[in-house]
Amino acid sequence: MANIPQKVVHKYLRHNKKFPHVWCPGCSNGTTLGSIIRAIAELNYDRDGITMVSGIGCSSRMPVYVDFNTLHTLHGRALPFATGIKMQKPEQKVIVITGDGDATAIGGNHFIHACRRNIDITTIVLNNNIYGMTGGQYSPTTPTGDRATTSPYGNIDPVFDICELAMAAGATFVARTTAFHALETQDIIKKALEHKGFSVVEVVSACPVIYGRLNKKGGGPEMMMHMRDNSVPLKATEKMTPEQLEGKIVRGIFKQVNKLEYCDAYANLMSQFNVKEEAKK
Amino acid sequence: MAKEKKEKVVENMETEVVAEDTRKVVLMQGNEAVARGALAAGLDFYAGYPITPSTEIAEILSEELPKKGGKFIQMEDEIASICAIIGASLAGAKAMTATSGPGFSLMQEGIGFAKATETPCVVVDVQRGGVSTGLPTKPSQGDIMQSKWGSHGDNPAIVLYPHTVKECYELAIRAINLSEKYRTCVTLLLDEVLGHMREAVKLPDISNVRIVNRLRPTVPPEWYKHYDENQKYISPVASYGEGYRFHVTGLAHDALGFPTNKASEVAAQMKRLKRKITHNIRDLVQIESYMMEDATVAIFAVGICARSAKAAIKAAREYGIKVGLLRPITIWPFPDDAVKKMLRDVDTIIVPELNEGQLINELHRLTKDKADGKIIPIQRSDGEMITPTHIFRVIKEAH
Amino acid sequence: MSQVFRKEVRFSGSGGQGLILDGIVLARAGVLDNYKVTQTQSYGPESRGGSSRADTIISDGDIYYPEAQNIDILVALTQVACDKFIFEMKEDGILIVDNNLVKNISVSIGKIYEEPFTEITLEKLGTELPMNIVTLAFMVKITKIVSEKSLEQAIRDSVKPMHIELNIKAMNLGFDLAKKYL
Ligand SMILES: Cc1ncc(C[n+]2csc(CCOP(=O)(O)OP(=O)(O)O)c2C)c(N)n1
Ligand code: SF4
Ligand SMILES: [Mg+2]
Q1: Are residues A91 and A49 in contact, defined by beta-carbon separation less than 8 angstroms?
Q2: Cβ proximity of B86 and B112 under 8 Å
Q3: B166 neighbors B157 (Cβ within 8 angstroms)
Q4: ipTM for the predicted complex
Q5: B5 pLDDT exceeds 80?
Q6: Nearest CA among B260, B336, B220, B350 for reference residue B297
Q7: What are phi and psi of C94, to 5 degrees?
Q8: I want to staple C11 with a disulfide (CB 3.0 to 4.6 A). Which of A103, B112, C22, C150 is the partner?
Q9: Are the CB atoms for C69 and B389 separated by under 8 Å?
């Protein structure tokens, strides 16, 4: 296995500011943050050119720790804030960090419309199948039958498949990976960042302290092992029967197409007026 | 006519329009004047969701903004709209949205975010009648209190209230200027009638419009504080992508913008939000006194009701009744001093408003005399206007 | 204070008759004649029902209340509108109706002009669409509320370029119809 260069990560953190972080021991959010940073480092992006926007939730606490332009918004609203930033400064790399509840419940409408517009934003959904921050209520991705503090008799809600949702709504890059597969996450995020258009990366995540405990999934390491043992790369699924696929997390890039990007479409619209974008200031 | 002019005193009329170009008299709708005023003030970004009676503002800006390199986007709802303008503002844009009651309610969480994070932006609320979906095409002044207290928590409010089409133009400029100057969300409240009515206005040459831009940091990024406690309540503000890499959060935050639970740091933030209003009352408050010099009866009204009041005053003056009008142009912060003076100077105050009693409570707050019939309400919330005749009758009865 | 010039005009009828445009064109003409003007109208469901209205007030003094309350000139193009608004007219007001559409006039009013505007427009111009401008021009010729020159300019400023010619023809038709009363 490749060497994980820790120093790279440290270069991008706001050490002297808000550490220690808020995440529980065993939480996979930090692992994913590492993958994101390494992807950015590999791409050699200028830190001033990156704006990281999040909603509200454990996962959404991420921007405060990184030394980019950062914005921690309202629950579910990261995408409209990010849309405003991207429209105003199309040259910024805009990354949205969101949770399963943030992206698909309260922010569901914004999510599908951002997909539809195909605006050049990379959205990373840390799907831990629960509302972590508020202490474990069921989310649109909590598996049917599972326990949450608001489903003490088992959740009766059917689940959203975030990637299916994103693809149907028009996102032009859609992928899923897990927090356990840190290097794969890094690689997929890198590709998502390089993709021009709306990209969605679902990172299946572990919330051992709440979801894990309520559903007897073990601690952080056990949940990570579960991701390792119960996920299959997209390629491998071709040879698998539906029975073999039952309960498996499929990982990989499901969609990657080129389509007119939203800010480009707006620039095209403006071009008839012969104005220079950002002519002033 | 000349006499009338002299009787009209506008306190603190540091108008945004330095000189009018008399050649450019045009017939214009209130909503259009708001859009044109915003453009004159340097609007860069508009996000909105259609709603009667505000839609013309979006329609005009969708046509005009791309022509000047500005951005227009129709979002999926009003929540998205307010969030998008805040994002754009953080990236350096002068940004605005417009809506009516139902959308204004949806925007409240975002408005609080803009105020807490001290991000300049403007929200136009063209008020419609009724509660809930109410009366989309009828006037009301039912959002006066919402414009102050609509978002949770103690938040500062700057709210402007025009009463002519010309004022729609000027106050749209002023709203953007104040939002930039005070780093906050400023609300422009319109009556439905004003949004939709057309009136002759003299448009200034753009070079005669006073434009205010937010203060920009001059310090190197290492020294930058997004909320510099050493500056007097309003500190310079950087934009994303300029090397400052600051953090913005709706959580209580310290001077750098990072979340904090420390009482002293939270208190500093709350103090700053409050003081930037209370220490600048003189700059913020604008008020028109119309024929108040010798008045024994005063009418206290805003927007369309102030127009009815002026017509009634003209009629009553012909009967020799000494009646005048005090009209706040800035309704929040409330013009306490001017109102206290009015309460001292006159015998009777008539408060016509298109709601069930919102402005009047502010007068009650400032006087102990409420029981003795000194303050007379005229309230209407059925979608119809309060006519000059109605006010005239009350003036005569009160006299 | 000297008596100020002030006229309150209401165009009324049903949606689709072009009344709002009449109100706007008259207001524009008023602006060109250096008057103060306000123009308001009924919106939404109200304007889709029986009685849509557009008000224009023209004055050389400040206009505070923007809606017509004591109507000087009422143009009524449906029976419902006429029945409803005639009671808001001044006693010496001027009422102009399309007599194919308004058959009964319930109270006596200063002056009443009755012409089959819609029918004549169709007959002379081959379409009844610019009936609103015919009626407006007729009213302006009779009342002289604004100058004919400003009216023409206001029409040019208010309609799409492709429709200017037709509407100027309609204006002249309206002027002609009024001649017999002058
Ligand atoms: C308008 C609003 N409603 C509710 C909340 C409370 N709230 C905060 S975080 C959260 C759920 C977060 O869940 P998710 O997005 O999955 O993030 P996680 O904490 O699991 O990472 C909720 C309901 C809020 N902050 N704002
Ligand atoms: S509650 Fe769950 S998701 Fe939140 S920090 Fe703790 S482990 Fe992570
Ligand atoms: Mg979650």
Answers
A1: yes
A2: no
A3: no
A4: 0.95
A5: no
A6: B350
A7: -110, 125
A8: C22
A9: yes
Angle between the C131-143 and C164-179 helix axes, to the nearest 10 degrees? 40
**Please, what sign has the CA dihedral across residues B217, B223, B226, B228?**
negative
Question: Phi, psi at residue A55, to the nearest 5°?
Answer: -95, -130
Strands B121-127 and B185-191: parallel
Report the DSSP beta bridge partners of residue B125. Answer: B99, B189
Fold classification of C6-179 is Pyruvate-ferredoxin Oxidoreductase; domain 3 (3.40.920)
d(CA C108, CA C111): 8
Helix runs in chain B, H state only: 2-7, 30-40, 55-64, 78-90, 101-116, 146-149, 165-182, 192-196, 263-278, 281-284, 303-318, 336-345, 359-366, 388-398
Mean pLDDT of A201-227: 97
Please choose, from the candidates A217, A191, A76, the residue with its C-alpha nearest in 3D space to the C-alpha of residue A133: A76
CB contact under 8 A, B196 and C40: yes
Residue B386's closest chain C neighbor by CA?
Answer: C65
Alpha-carbon distances, residue B211 vs B16, B120, B221, C9 (angstroms): 7, 14, 27, 39
Q: Is C64 close to B196, i.e. CB distance below 8 A? A: no
Q: Apex CA B185: angle with CA B180 and CA B186, to 5°?
A: 85
Q: How many degrees, rounded to 5, is the angle at CA B386 between CA B382 and CA B392?
A: 150
Q: How far does the CA of residue A228 sit from the closest CA of chain B (Å)?
A: 35
| C-beta A140 within 6 A of ligand 1 | no
Question: Side chain identity at B129, as an amino acid letter?
Answer: G
How many residues are listed for chain A in this entry? 281
Name the packing angle between helices C117-125 and C164-179 (round to 10°): 120
Q: Which two tokens stand for residue B256?
A: 């750098």
- Assess contact for B297 and B347: CB atoms under 8 A: yes
Query: What is the rounded CA–CA span in Å between residue A95 and residue A114?
Result: 13
Q: Which residues of C32-57 are buried (b: 16+ CB within 10 A; e: fewer)?
A: bbebbbbbbbbbeebbeeebbbbbbb
Dihedral (CA of C127, C130, C136, C137) sign: negative
Taking CA atoms, B51 is separated from A229, A259, B48, B131, C6, in Å, by: 52, 31, 9, 15, 35
Domains by residue range for chain B, with CATH: 8-208 (3.40.50.970), 286-398 (3.40.50.920)
Tokens found for residue B40 = 């004159």
* Architecture of domain A23-233+249-279 in this structure: 3-Layer(aba) Sandwich (3.40)
Q: Over the stretch B325-383, which tens digit does the pLDDT of each residue have? A: 999 999 999 999 999 999 999 999 999 999 999 999 999 999 876 566 899 999 999 99
pTM metric for this prediction: 0.95
CB pairs A-B closer than 8 Å: 141
pLDDT value, residue B3: 42
Mean pLDDT, chain A, rounded, equals: 94
CB atoms within 10 A of CB B207: 8
Domain residue extents for chain A: 23-233+249-279
From the CA atom positions of chain B, what is the Rg in Å? 21
Amino acid at B335: P
How confident is the model at residue A20, as a pLDDT?
80
Domain ranges in chain C are 6-179
CB distance B4–C37 less than 8 Å?
no
Nearest to A224 by CA among A209, A210, A252, A205: A205
Distance CA C16, CA C21 (A): 10
Peptide bond connecting B333 to the previous residue in cis, omega within 30 degrees of 0: yes
Whether residue C81 contacts residue C94, with contact meaning beta carbons closer than 8 Å, is answered with no
B residues 143-182 closer than 8 Å to C (CB): none
Q: How many CB pairs under 8 A join B and C?
A: 70
Give the single-character DSSP code of B122. Answer: E
Residue B264 near residue B308 (C-beta atoms within 8 A): no
Give the whole-angstrom CA distance, residue B247 versus residue C167.
60
Low-confidence ranges of chain C (pLDDT < 70): 1-3, 43-51
Q: Is the CB of A62 under 6 A from ligand 1?
A: no
